[in-house]
Every structure is written in C-alpha cells, then in structure tokens.
Amino acid sequence: MQFPRMKEIREEAGLKQKDIAEIMNVTKGSYSMWECGTDTIPLRRLNQFCNYFDVSIDYVVGFNNKKKYSNAKPDIKIKITGENLKKIRTKKGLTQVAIADALNINQPTWNRYENSKSLILTVVLVELAKKYHYSIDKILGKDKD
User: Fold this and answer.
1) Is 54 exposed, middle or buried (0-12, 13-18, 19+ CB in 10 A)?
2) pTM higher than 0.85, yes or no?
3) 50 membership: H or E segment, kind and range
4) Are the C-beta atoms of residues 61 and 128 closer than 8 Å to each other?
5) Cα separation of 46 and 52, whole Å?
C-alpha cells in the first residue's frame, strides 16, 4: 500500500530515506519499502511518521488536503479505536461477520479490533475508511474536529 505523500513530505523537509529510517529507528530497507509501497507501513510507525512531520494520517494517505488538525493528539488510543470501530459498524447496521467480509478479514479478527484486543492493521483501516467515508484520525481518536 503506497502513500505517495510520504515521499513528498520527506523531500520537502530535505531529508533522505536513511535520515527518516534513523529517526524512526528502523532499517533504511524497511522505510524504503514503506515509502515505495512494496510493504505496508505498520500503523504505529505511520503515526510516528505523522507525528514527526506534524501532519495528519488522513493527509498522508491522501484522504484530504488538510495537513493537520487543530486539536490533534499524538497517540493512537486503542480503546477509543475499538469503540469507534463498533460505532461505525452499528451505524451502518452491519454484523461483525458482514463488516469483516466487506473488509476481507475474518470475524474473530474484527472482534479483536472492535474489543481493543489488537490494533487494527493499516491496510484494513484504510479500506474501512475509504469504503465507509470516515477519517482515519477520528477513528484512531487522534482528532475530535
């Protein structure tokens, strides 16, 4: 899953991939694969990238052109994320099986996300946000706007 704005943001800051890799305490190879889309960046690492550059996750993934939210929180709140996932599902009138099927995951996995037992994977979160038109930052409890 490629997020072209990662490269744009890094280059605007005048940094090389190796610089960001050092900042994020990962190998240059890992960062390079995330930036070029051959591997999906883990959600906590995406959050780390966004916090470093003071940009919203929604902006980095290309959901909008708003670089940051006025009351953005730096941390992902797993409990709030789970609660928000449940709210989305119930608002859409879906069962756990139905939403899991729509996202190509299994119901026990969705249950773990919804009950805050596991942090949702980046690829699943992006698909959910696209499919149902939600802000990733709001789902994660990073934005209240």
Assistant:
1) exposed
2) yes
3) helix 43-53
4) no
5) 10
Please give the structure tokens belonging to residue 144.
């209240």
Mind giving me the DSSP string for 68-129?
A: --TT--SS--HHHHHHHHHHHHHHTT--HHHHHHHTTS-HHHHHHHHTTSSPPPHHHHHHHH
Angle in degrees, CA 19, 140, 43, rounded to 5: 35
pLDDT tens digit at each of 145 positions of the chain: 899 899 999 999 999 999 999 999 999 999 999 999 999 999 999 999 999 999 999 999 999 998 988 778 889 999 999 999 999 999 999 999 999 999 999 999 999 999 999 999 999 999 999 999 999 999 999 986 5
Three-class secondary structure of residue 40 per DSSP:
coil
Between CA 37 and CA 30 the distance in angstroms is 11
Q: With both helix axes pointing from N to C terminus, report the angle between 122-132 and 78-91 in degrees, rounded to the nearest 10.
A: 40
Taking the C-alpha atoms of residue 28 and residue 98, their distance in angstroms, rounded to an integer, is 39
Structure tokens at 34: 């995330």
